[in-house]
Design goal:
Length: about 300
Amino acid sequence: MLRTLRQPALLIVDTGYDLKLSGAVGIFVLLFLGIFQPFGLSRVWPELKYYLIVGYSATCFVVLFLNFHFIPKLLPRVFDEQRWTVLKRMIWQLWLVFAVGTGNFLFACCFNLFYDFYQLDLDFFLYLQLITLLIAIIPIVVVNLLRQNYELRKNLQASQEITARLETIAARDEMPRDKASRDIVLTAENEKDRFMIPADSFLFAQSEGNYTRVFAQENSAESLFIRSSLSRIEKQLADFPHLVRCHRAYIVNIKKVKKVTGNALGLSLELESTDKPVPVARSYVRQFKQRMGMS
């Protein structure tokens, strides 16, 4: 169970997507309330019923969009796409349900200022939370499944296209070139420690806190451990077009990629001379394909 909760999960932080998702859920709530009429809607005067239905639906839209748009910006370390897990997603979804339920309660309070209809007490607050949860289960499950399947199909297609491109490159020898005799010289942050690696032996670099671990074919058993950020290392590799940033924590040598697989979270690269997979994050897939000479 704990292992399942710690597994990576899909996270999308995008204003356009947030707006569409909030709108879709708002429309679903509008239709649900119009058909089933919870929250005492069946007992409301017909001329007021539509105000309540639209009000609850609009409250759902506004609360969701505000949460989607602002909370990830306020808590960027929590909403890190590379560290998002099943447990975090569950907690986030429960919070959204609670926030919408609380928003519904506040809307009912405002409604009562003009029409004394609801008995505003703890029981009514808990009732709103329960009904909100029951209504939210359907769009939450459906949206997650649809988005998961969409990302899976997209990344599987991308992996097939990249694999085909790799085969073409191997057959035509079209890989991006630099001067074959050049060595990569990496300098640590202290500007004193220098490391030299033959460009063709570089496999990948991985960020580990304030350090970067570099794996190369000559010393795969004992990788280089350099006190430097990956972004700083990336700048030092600017003259080597086949060394590509593919993830927040990885730079890979595309000449060493032998197989590409895909899942809902992104792509995974299998390299020569190592059994360590290298991920390609969703946000880097387009850039990675461009560096492979693909549109």
